[in-house]
Amino acid sequence: MNVRMNERPGSPHHEPGLSYYSSVMEPILWKIRDRVFTLTHRPLVMGIVNVTPDSFSDGGQWYDYDAAVAHALQLAEQGADILDIGGESTRPGATPVAMEEELRRVVPVVRAIAQHTSIPLSIDTMKAEVARQCLAAGASIINDVSGFRDPAMIAVARHFHAGCIVMHMPGNPQTMMDLAHYTNVVEEVTGYLEERLQLLQQAGIPPEAVCVDPGIGFGKHLDHSLTLLAHLDRIAQLGRPVCLGVSRKGFLGQICNRQRHERDPASLAVACIAAGRGTAHILRVHEVRDTRDAARLLEAINQHRMMKIDHDCSQ
To answer: Which residue out of 249, 263, 277, 292 is catalytically annotated?
Structure first.
């Protein structure tokens, strides 16, 4: 499923309505510190651990240190491939958190989780010092919603050989919705991510260490988010894994008329559509167990699909 998107309509293996799969499965490698993910048939499941009092979906639920660690380990037991720990809400209009407070929230949690599980840990932060201390405490990935605009963040990633998740967001969480103006949202988001990939490579971050995130809901209104989801294959053509975070987001509530705690089925539906088309490789979610089950089903289906393609090619 996770392949380089280089087939075109009219080729022998193009299927209308799906992404353009290559005739031979080409795994995408994602290098994070001391390990490599080989992305082929199954999307990775990234479980969200919000150590915040004000995150949009579960703010305050895992704010306590013991509760955050216990929740993270529960997500690991449910099958998370990665755990993403964040200490600052990035919902629209969120109040910025001082660095000292963010460090107090996340560093002990990262250290404790790293001592109890070998699952790679991601630190969701825009602050280079927070990333540095969390990587020193056992994290392997920096998930920077500001897209590694701070040269100090790039230096931290390079020093630790960290995996990098580069997201598109205009402005910051306080201003992003005021800046949600696009002529062609797909090409503008893709172009931005391509620029960031080039800049990171020039700064010494190998492309294999980077995945990209279109930033659904971050400075995007409903139409923008839906357009990006409909054309994720354009972003996947960058040749890097695509991290997709739609879990419980506002656009789902707008369409389905559901409150935040009722949006898991809609979240899973979007994730399955994107992953099934081969245009999402890491699914960032609150509900790990159901997403992991869906990922396993996608893996089984795609393996049989490729067996048929291989059989047809051999005829």
So the answer is: 249
User: Which residue of the set 4, 132, 277, 284 is catalytic?
Assistant: 284
CATH number of residue 257's parent domain: 3.20.20.20
Tell me which of 301 and 127 has the higher pLDDT. Answer: 127
Place of tokens 């449910």: 78
Active site residue 149: no
Residue 249: active-site member: yes
Per residue in 167-203, pLDDT (tens digit) is: 999 999 999 999 999 999 999 999 999 999 999 999 9
- In tens, the pLDDT along 57-69 reads 544 455 688 889 9
Full residue range of the structural domain in which residue 58 is found: 42-308
The domain total for the chain is 1
Q: Which residues make Cβ contacts (< 8 Å) with residue 190, sequence separation at least 6?
A: 234, 235, 237, 238
Residue 113 CB burial class (10 angstroms; 0-12, 13-18, ≥19): buried
214 assigned to some structural domain = yes
Residue at 35 is within a domain: no
Residues written for the chain: 315
